[in-house]
């Protein structure tokens, strides 16, 4: 086995420290979730004496994490599906369809990326309240679409611009409508980008607290991340149970990246390699 030279050590050592800093919080949380309250009070940094699943069961059942988890799955699935549908259509239109004002609309989407949610929070809440959408699944889904659609449209527009226009022109000559070009050509070609953007959108929606807290104030409709904040207050003296709730919330994201890391990397680089 070849040894690492000094120059490679200069790169490998910081990367190893970065990996350790990333993995350690997850391992620490999992270790705390397996401890009893007494073990945590005596020594919070020691290794758990045994694998105990009681804290996970308490967080899932007694603290209502199961209901919060289902709420998050419903909202995130619907929001990501709507984001990808609207974003892919808008991205295709802005990138490949020639019409007056397309450049201005692209700049509007780009400018919307720099508007923080706190700026539109009050008007959005007022509109949702007037429409009777507060504390409803459609209300939170529409709020996520409003917040993350500019990001989705911008990335998919950049991807579809790399598709040769001759391909679209040939499809139109063959008799395809614009919808036919979108469905038969753009959707299959954009699958890597759609997967990458969909995972990022799902991560944004899953980790959100502010929008969910604003749109879903009642306890029955809380999402998982909002439920964790309430869990911290309910079990302020029981840190292992709180750590179990954090672990439950983080596992879906971790599993998604473990199984789809290659697809994510392919999707991120696909727009730069086509054309």
UniProtKB/TrEMBL annotation:
<feature type="transmembrane region" description="Helical">
    <location>
        <begin position="107"/>
        <end position="129"/>
    </location>
</feature>
<feature type="transmembrane region" description="Helical">
    <location>
        <begin position="193"/>
        <end position="219"/>
    </location>
</feature>
<dbReference type="Pfam" id="PF00528">
    <property type="entry name" value="BPD_transp_1"/>
</dbReference>
<keyword id="KW-0472">Membrane</keyword>
<keyword id="KW-1003">Cell membrane</keyword>
<keyword id="KW-0812">Transmembrane</keyword>
<feature type="transmembrane region" description="Helical">
    <location>
        <begin position="239"/>
        <end position="260"/>
    </location>
</feature>
<protein>
    <submittedName>
        <fullName>Carbohydrate ABC transporter permease</fullName>
    </submittedName>
</protein>
<keyword id="KW-1133">Transmembrane helix</keyword>
<keyword id="KW-0813">Transport</keyword>
<dbReference type="InterPro" id="IPR000515">
    <property type="entry name" value="MetI-like"/>
</dbReference>
<feature type="transmembrane region" description="Helical">
    <location>
        <begin position="141"/>
        <end position="160"/>
    </location>
</feature>
<feature type="domain" description="ABC transmembrane type-1">
    <location>
        <begin position="69"/>
        <end position="260"/>
    </location>
</feature>
<comment type="similarity">
    <text>Belongs to the binding-protein-dependent transport system permease family.</text>
</comment>
<feature type="transmembrane region" description="Helical">
    <location>
        <begin position="68"/>
        <end position="95"/>
    </location>
</feature>
<dbReference type="InterPro" id="IPR035906">
    <property type="entry name" value="MetI-like_sf"/>
</dbReference>
């Amino acid at each position: 086995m070849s040894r690492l030279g000094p120059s490679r050590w200069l790169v490998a050592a910081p990367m190893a420290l970065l990996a350790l800093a990333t993995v350690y919080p997850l391992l620490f949380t999992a270790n705390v979730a397996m401890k009893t309250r007494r073990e945590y009070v005596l020594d919070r940094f020691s290794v758990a004496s045994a694998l105990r699943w009681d804290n996970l069961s308490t967080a899932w059942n007694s603290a209502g994490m199961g209901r919060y988890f289902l709420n998050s799955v419903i909202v995130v699935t619907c929001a990501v599906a709507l984001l990808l549908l609207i974003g892919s259509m808008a991205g295709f239109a802005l990138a490949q369809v020639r019409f007056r004002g397309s450049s201005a609309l692209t700049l509007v989407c780009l400018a919307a990326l720099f508007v923080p949610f706190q700026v539109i929070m009050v008007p959005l809440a007022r509109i949702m309240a007037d429409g009777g959408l507060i504390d409803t699944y459609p209300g939170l889904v529409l709020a996520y679409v409003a917040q993350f659609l500019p990001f989705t449209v911008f990335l998919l527009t950049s991807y579809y611009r790399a598709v040769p226009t001759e391909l679209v022109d040939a499809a139109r000559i063959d008799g395809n409508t614009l919808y036919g070009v979108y469905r038969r050509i753009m959707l299959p070609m954009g699958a890597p980008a759609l997967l990458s953007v969909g995972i990022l959108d799902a991560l944004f929606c899953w980790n959100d607290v502010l929008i969910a807290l604003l749109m879903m104030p009642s306890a029955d409709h809380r999402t998982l991340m909002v439920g964790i904040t309430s869990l911290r207050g309910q079990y302020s003296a029981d840190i292992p149970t709180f750590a179990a709730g954090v672990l439950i919330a983080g596992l879906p994201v971790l599993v998604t990246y473990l199984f789809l890391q290659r697809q994510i990397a392919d999707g991120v680089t696909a727009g730069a390699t086509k054309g």
